[in-house]
Amino acid sequence: MKCSVPASVKYDHTFCQGCAQGIVNRLIGEIMEELGTTEKLIVTTDVACGAMNVDFWDFDTIVGAHGRPIPTATGVRKVRKDCLSLAHLGDGAAYNIGMAETMHAAIRDDDVMALVLNNCVFAMTGGQTSATTMLGQRTTTSVKGRKKSVEGSPFHVEKALGDMDIAYLARGSVDSVAAIRKTKKYLKKAFEKHKNHEGFCLVEILTPCPTNWGLSPVDSMKRIREQVIPEFPVGEFIDRGGNE
Ligand SMILES: Cc1ncc(C[n+]2csc(CCOP(=O)(O)OP(=O)(O)O)c2C)c(N)n1
Ligand code: SF4
Ligand SMILES: [Mg+2]
């Protein structure tokens, strides 16, 4: 059977087996083709696992400093208002080292779109504890499991940004076909709002990291379903009306 991959996404990649970067790429590619904006997209990615995308993305791409794709993408949008400017980053970048940048972009309601792949670890550097590592989750820096008394509680973006005056905030997952379809709806809505200059949009996607979770690809998806989603609920949290 012939697989129809959008022309904007090439086949070759260097991700581990079971990594969901490819699924997310496909969604971005499909949405760009549906919106007719493939030639208008500029992606600022982080130096983490997502940076491997630059070898095979056909989009115009910048690699920002770690944790700083959001302000970089905001700058891009300011000088290229005709283009879509996507910040593509992980949980560690968005909610650890780049936390200040994420918060201030939301406070200013910056005209930018952020896509956060939340795999609950610093994957690229060997699976250390991140802001979204779950209590009890074993990582290379919490070998007996994350403890509230030591590393604090997991960070929930919907609690931090939930009352802010921003255009869009949602969380999706990729653990099933139905979940991927729903995530695509969130992403597409965010891209549409971004296209219309409606303000700050952030979509978080719960993604697996079989390598650092020490699980098979199938068991990683099961973990998302059974453990990660109960901690990080999926859905839309902010969906502000159009440009006023
Ligand atoms: C200023 C700076 N601090 C730290 C690093 C090391 N570093 C690179 S990627 C990364 C972790 C990224 O984790 P995350 O953002 O969750 O992305 P993932 O690899 O999980 O997709 C770290 C700590 C760096 N490159 N630059
Ligand atoms: S380490 Fe994890 S996030 Fe990085 S490519 Fe491998 S599976 Fe994907
Ligand atoms: Mg991560």
Keywords for this entry:
seven-stranded mixed sheet, 244 residues, 7 strands, globular, binds thiamine diphosphate, Rossmann fold, alpha/beta, single chain, binds iron/sulfur cluster
How many domain units?
Answer: 1
Q: Can you tell me the CATH topology?
A: Rossmann fold
Q: In this structure, how is the largest beta sheet organized? A: 7 strands, mixed
Label the structural class. Answer: alpha/beta
Give the names of the bound compounds. Answer: thiamine diphosphate, iron/sulfur cluster, magnesium ion
Q: Order of strands across the biggest sheet?
A: 2-1-3-4-6-5-7
Using the coordinates above, name the CATH class: Alpha Beta
CATH superfamily: Thiamin diphosphate (ThDP)-binding fold, Pyr/PP domains
Helix content: 25-40%
CATH architecture: 3-Layer(aba) Sandwich
Regions with little confidence, pLDDT below 50 for 5+ residues: none
